[in-house]
Q: What sequence folds into this?
């Protein structure tokens, strides 16, 4: 018998998830400068592994907790992209429309992929990162990913390409914010040398974000196929 919802909501890993969201929003509302906000947000993102560790260690794994973990991650990244846009507008006013469109598109894509992955898992009983589920509400449906996307999602993103994509997801808005906040490199120098940030880390992270972009489109496309399949079943009945 599953535990009551009130108990699941108060699981230690879930409390950590709420705390990450509140702390990130608080840091944003306090108006910290871009470098400090990037560092605080990065620390909150790095605690992502902790809730998973606690869930296993305390035997408090739950579907709600797994979903909350994803929501917290995307929420923190959305704050980074939003802050990045504000700093770009302040520094490069002539480019405000381009960077606003880029940031909003990325935020929308990440939330859309979140919905697609969670709905696919709910309908098929299969984890969106791959693997076998315990039951299937859409029997016979199998996501069709290209060999490249399969390599990205292999072993739950624990592959070289998967790790690169994850680094790109988190690293691109952080590096972008550091560059936007400190175009001359002085403010960000306390964190990283400017040439390392702009010549090595930022290109590396952007490439990883492109890899993640390809995987996100594949996940959304797979979900769209599933929606059409389920709709066909409804009409057939």
A:
């Amino acid at each position: 018998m599953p535990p009551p919802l009130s108990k699941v909501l108060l699981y230690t890993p879930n409390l950590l998830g709420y705390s990450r969201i509140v702390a990130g929003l608080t840091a944003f509302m306090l108006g910290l400068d871009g470098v400090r906000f990037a560092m605080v947000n990065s620390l909150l993102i790095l605690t992502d592994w902790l809730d998973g560790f606690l869930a296993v260690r305390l035997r408090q794994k739950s579907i709600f907790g797994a979903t909350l973990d994803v929501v917290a991650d995307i929420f923190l990244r959305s704050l980074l992209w939003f802050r990045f846009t504000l700093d770009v507008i302040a520094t490069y006013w002539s480019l405000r429309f381009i960077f606003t469109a880029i940031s909003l598109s990325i935020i929308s894509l990440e939330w859309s992929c979140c919905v697609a992955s969670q709905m696919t898992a709910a309908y098929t009983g299969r984890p969106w990162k791959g693997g076998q589920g315990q039951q299937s509400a859409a029997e016979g449906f199998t996501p069709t990913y290209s060999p490249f996307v399969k390599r990205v999602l292999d072993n739950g993103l624990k592959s070289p390409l998967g790790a690169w994509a994850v680094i790109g997801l988190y690293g691109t808005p952080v590096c972008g914010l550091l560059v936007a906040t400190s175009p001359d490199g002085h403010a960000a120098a306390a964190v990283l040398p400017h040439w390392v940030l702009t010549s090595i880390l930022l290109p590396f992270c952007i490439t990883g974000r492109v890899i993640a972009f390809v995987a996100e489109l594949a996940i959304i496309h797979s979900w769209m196929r599933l929606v059409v399949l389920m709709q066909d079943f409804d009409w057939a009945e």
Q: What stands out?
A: Residues 78 and 107 are 6 Å apart (CA to CA).
